[in-house]
TrEMBL record:
Residues 41-54 have a biased composition (Low complexity). This is DUF3048 domain-containing protein. InterPro entries: DUF3048_C, DUF3048_N, YerB-like_sf. The keyword Magnesium does not apply. The keyword Signal applies. It comes from the Bacteria.
Length: 372
C-alpha cells in the first residue's frame, strides 16, 4: 500500500509560510491575564465563631425537548430516531457534465475535494434522507473519501473506486454500499436522460433498503460522541483575531466556486460555474452556516493522475462563519481518526449550529483562496 513513488508538491512549505498566506485574518494578539488577589481581613470574634455557608452554584442542565436529541452533524435539535441514526455519506460528482445535482440542499455536512485532473467531488452527509427522491449523480470514491466518511461513522454509498482505495474500503473500516459490486439493482437507479457515467442516482427509500439488506447497524455506536463542537443555543463561536469574510473564493480549477455571506439570515450562499449552485430537486440555492478550509499536502499514486491527499497528521486552514474568518490549525491522529480544528490560542473551535462545508485545498493552491 505504501510502495509509492512520491511526487509531493510543495511539501517543503513550512507551517509558518502557509499561515502567512492564509491570514489576511488579522494580527495576532497575546493577552496576558492578570491575576487578582483577594485580601483577607482578619476579624476577632468573641468566643463563638459564626460559620458562613457558601452556596455552590450547580451547572445548569439543558432543557431537552421531549423526544429530541442534539444532531451530531449540525448541533441542532432533531427527533431522537433521526439523531441517533448513522448518516448516509454519498459520493457525488461535481463536474460540469454532471450538473445539475440533486439532493445536496438536504445534506448537513459536505466535503469538497479535488480528484484527478481538474475534477472535484463531494462526500455529502445526510441525516434526514427519508423523503429524498433523487440524490446524485453518484461516482466512484478515492482513498481520502473513505477517511472522510469514517469520521462521522456513516454508511458510505459510492459507485466504484480507484484501485488504490479498494483495500481501505474493503478492509473492515467502512460499511459500504458499492454500486459496482452487486448493489446497482437495489440501491441505485439510472436517471432518464442522463448520459453515462453521470446517470447513477439513489433515493431515501433505496438507502434504507440497502442498509437493511446489507445487514448494517443503522445506529451510532454507544461510544460515539460526535465530530464537531457547537455553540450553545443563542450563542456564537469565539473568533479571536477575526477578519471580515463576506466573500469566500476557493478557486478549484474546474468549477471555480465561491460563497457570499447574507447578513439577513447569517448564511453563506454557494456559487459555481459562474452562477448560483442550485439543487435541481427543489430549485433551492445551496447554503451553509460554517465553512472550513483545510490545507493538505498530497502525492500522486505512481505515475497516475490519482491523488493521495494527506488528510491525516496536521496542517493549517481557516474557519469562516457569521461574516468573519480566523486562521486555524488542524490535527488528525491516523487515517481513521477524527479531525480537530484549533484557533490561534490553541482552543478547539466551536461551530455555529447548522450546516458545514469543508473545502480541501492542496498546499500549492493555498494562495488562490481569496477571502474579503
Amino acid at each position: 500500500m505504501k510502495k509509492l513513488r512520491k511526487r509531493k508538491l510543495q511539501m517543503g512549505v513550512s507551517l509558518f509560510v502557509i499561515l502567512m498566506l492564509l491570514a489576511g485574518c488579522g494580527k495576532k494578539q497575546e493577552e496576558t491575564a492578570k491575576a487578582t488577589e483577594t485580601e483577607k481581613a482578619a476579624a476577632t470574634v468573641p468566643e463563638t465563631s459564626a460559620v458562613t455557608e457558601t452556596a455552590e452554584t450547580e451547572p445548569e442542565t439543558e432543557a431537552v425537548p421531549e423526544g429530541m436529541v442534539r444532531s451530531y452533524l449540525t448541533g441542532q435539535w432533531v427527533p431522537e430516531q433521526i439523531g441517533r441514526r448513522r448518516p448516509a455519506a454519498v459520493m457525488i460528482s461535481n463536474v460540469k457534465a454532471a450538473q445539475p445535482s440533486y439532493g445536496l440542499s438536504a445534506a448537513d455536512v459536505i466535503y469538497e475535494a479535488p480528484a484527478e485532473a481538474s475534477a472535484v467531488r463531494f462526500v455529502a452527509f445526510f441525516e434526514q434522507y427519508d423523503d429524498l427522491k433523487e440524490i446524485g449523480s453518484i461516482r466512484s470514491a478515492r482513498t481520502y473519501h473513505a477517511f472522510f466518511q469514517k469520521e462521522f461513522e456513516s454508511i458510505f454509498f459510492h459507485y466504484g473506486q480507484c484501485e488504490y482505495a479498494r483495500p481501505y474500503l474493503e478492509g473492515g473500516q467502512c460499511d459500504c454500499v458499492n454500486g459496482v459490486t452487486g448493489a446497482s439493482e437495489w440501491a441505485y437507479h439510472s436517471m432518464e436522460g442522463r448520459e453515462k457515467p453521470h446517470h447513477h442516482f439513489t433515493s431515501g427509500e433505496e438507502i434504507k433498503y440497502a442498509i437493511e439488506r446489507m445487514g448494517y447497524d443503522n445506529q451510532y455506536p454507544e461510544s460515539y460522541t460526535g465530530h464537531y463542537q457547537f455553540a450553545a443555543d443563542g450563542e456564537t463561536p469565539s473568533m479571536p483575531d477575526a477578519s471580515p469574510a463576506s466573500r469566500v473564493s476557493v478557486e478549484y480549477i474546474s468549477n471555480k466556486p465561491w460563497f457570499e455571506y447574507n447578513a439577513e439570515d447569517s448564511l453563506y450562499y454557494r456559487y459555481q460555474f459562474e452562477g448560483p449552485h442550485v439543487d435541481a430537486g427543489n430549485d433551492e440555492q445551496l447554503t451553509c452556516k460554517n465553512i472550513i478550509i483545510q490545507v493538505c499536502d498530497y502525492e500522486h499514486y505512481f505515475d497516475t493522475d490519482y491523488l493521495n491527499i494527506f488528510v491525516q497528521g496536521e496542517g493549517v486552514g481557516q474557519f469562516i462563519t457569521d461574516g468573519k474568518v480566523i486562521p486555524v490549525t488542524w490535527k488528525k491522529d491516523g487515517e481513521w481518526g477524527v479531525t480537530h480544528y484549533y484557533d490561534s490560542q490553541g482552543n478547539e473551535i466551536k461551530l455555529n449550529q447548522g450546516k458545514t462545508w469543508v473545502c480541501i485545498v492542496r498546499t500549492e493552491r493555498v494562495g488562490r483562496v481569496q477571502i474579503s
